[in-house]
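Input set for joint prediction.
Command: fold jointly, output tokens.
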Amino acid sequence: MGVPANQRATDSSAGDPKAGDSKAACSKALDTKQRILEAAEALFVERGFSGASLRAVTGAAGVNLAAVHYHFGSKEGLLHALLDQHVGPINQDRLERLLRLEAASAPAAPSAEAVLRAFIEPALMRERGRDPQRVRSLLGRIYGEPPHLVGPLVEREFGALGRRFVEALERSLPQLPRDELRWRFQFVVGALLYVISGNAGLALQFGPELGRASTEELVELLLGFVEAGIGAPARASRAEGTE
Amino acid sequence: MGVPANQRATDSSAGDPKAGDSKAACSKALDTKQRILEAAEALFVERGFSGASLRAVTGAAGVNLAAVHYHFGSKEGLLHALLDQHVGPINQDRLERLLRLEAASAPAAPSAEAVLRAFIEPALMRERGRDPQRVRSLLGRIYGEPPHLVGPLVEREFGALGRRFVEALERSLPQLPRDELRWRFQFVVGALLYVISGNAGLALQFGPELGRASTEELVELLLGFVEAGIGAPARASRAEGTE
DNA sequence: GTCTATACGCCGATAGAC
DNA sequence: GTCTATCGGCGTATAGAC
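tokens >
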């Protein structure tokens, strides 16, 4: 009794366990780290961050529980590494597109439509050979986790980029009051995140019929909505007070 | 050593512990239930559902840990009771407004603007003498919790109502393809939830300057955005296939 | 440097005494 | 209706094997 070996369910690497070469040890370390990341990605998307236990992650990855603390410091550190790996490239893509747009239309500002497309398309399209639904959901799943967790994380991964896009939109829509534009940008982010998360409505609310839209169709549908919304006439209901 | 009595920190009721009257017991039960609800509301909003432990809730309420399972069955049951208490009235308000709109404009359909206002205003305005921010946040905080939790909850609290509003919008905008309208309604829900949650962007992203908008201003800002978005010309990029 | 085994203090849940 | 005791699972920390 008492043999606790319920790990290593999937495999324990292809080579023989005797290989003590330092290069082999190094590649094994990378392998462990990568296996943890892949298992964590799948489980975080499936069950959410709080809902996926480290024991489930390490069990699925076939590694020891403590390995995650050695490589990532904590469960939150693991999430951070996962986000750096996924939303980093998305945000880089967004920024490159924005800079290209601004260079192409200089000295005029690019259209709000083009800026919004640069913001939205990378978030929905990027897949890199993986199941696209999975990659997308990870980002959306993060919002709504306990606030003390999501706050610093959003600022770190998204703060500067969001402010940069708002500045671009301010130049595209100079007639719109600054505050109103900033709120509208928040509405865009909200709609995008809700779509990305795939969490609520949709299949749940209307049955599978609504889930049919392809990624490309979804981008166009969302863009049609937010372009009209952000370009709507100013409400200007608060021309008062602060002079 | 080993005396585990670290509960009862706050108090243990005002009366003497001998009072065996049945009426007193009953009112004490109601009091216990209500105290749990109030403490849970505050802590769920502050730390999120997963982040607030039952021990913290019962400790703040000054009741025993097991009481929550006696009265609500589980932590999830407690959340459910809390939502019934808060989003129930909101959804009832929404439905009454919609029915009044439809009655007033019959046999024609009410405008999409009016329907959207009936959907959004109750969610942002209702407060009932409490700190309004707190009441609003509870609803928004729920989304993004682990999907197995949020799925049935959304369907139960919101499914029928959401479908009813989509039907109304379909009558208000008959020229818009059904699928496109349903997606757009999802975008509205996403933007609304993002605002309600108060979780992300906003103060975090732009500093406190953006948090200044009053509830009434916020309703108008959001309505201006979603009215334009939902009424935008159809993209119609998928007139194909299913005939 | 990489990984394993083991332990600690919380958590939600439950059974049974009062 | 309330409380105590206790359960298995959780995230985390660390000592030591290789």
